Amino acid sequence: MATSTLKKRITMAIVAPALALGATVGLASAPASAAVWSSCDQWGSTTLNGYTLYNNIWGSGAGSQCIWANSGTNWGVNANHPNTGGIKSYPNAKKVINKSITSLGSLSSSYNVTVPPSGAYNTSYDIWDTNYDYEIMLWVNKTGAVGPLGTSQGTLTLGGHTWTVYKGNNGANDVFSFVRTSNSSSGTVNILPILKWIKDTKGWFGNVTIGDLQFGFEITSSSGGLDFTVNSESVSSS
């Protein structure tokens, strides 16, 4: 998105809680069953079994959102963001890779999510190089009035899925978005061939070092309070 990339990068670099979103932040609630960790703070974060979780309410006009986690790979949010335009949040779990593309022997991830039938959001991987010059987004599902930044580069089958590819720039970095042509709530993505296609076939970047690999929900609206759940996730690399 045109405004999301830089703001996500800045907000997720913050280690101390910032100002809350006023009285609205505490309105959403975690699941009735006790979780290992939960937070309604705007920048709430924790690290569980090698994954760093972020509540990450960064967009203007946001409502309330609470994150809960049983582990770094089983977590969710209850979000109540108004039915207005603009991304409000990107709650996610981050795994740090810190390997160059040519030094990676493999990089893949599996996901299983439960998402609401209404609202406006996407479920996506957000992958960054260590200099934050390039952002690679892999949308596995989307609902409502949401769309990627940039212009369409056509359709491609790669990494176990068929995508429509978009290329754009938000003023801070280049953004390459791969939007699955049909929605999926579970599956496995072979990420390394996608990175190599960008590097070797298209030449859109060189042998960059992959840093953050995030997976979560980019939420534009969820009026009334909607639940987004990562039932399971795994990231593996060699």
UniProtKB/TrEMBL annotation:
Top-level taxon of origin: Bacteria
NCBIfam families: PRK06215.1
Claim: Signal is one of the keywords in the record: yes
Keywords: Carbohydrate metabolism, Glycosidase, Hydrolase, Polysaccharide degradation, Signal
A matching Pfam family: Glyco_hydro_12
Family: Belongs to the glycosyl hydrolase 12 (cellulase H) family.
Signal peptide: 1-34
Name this protein carries in UniProt: Glycosyl hydrolase family 12
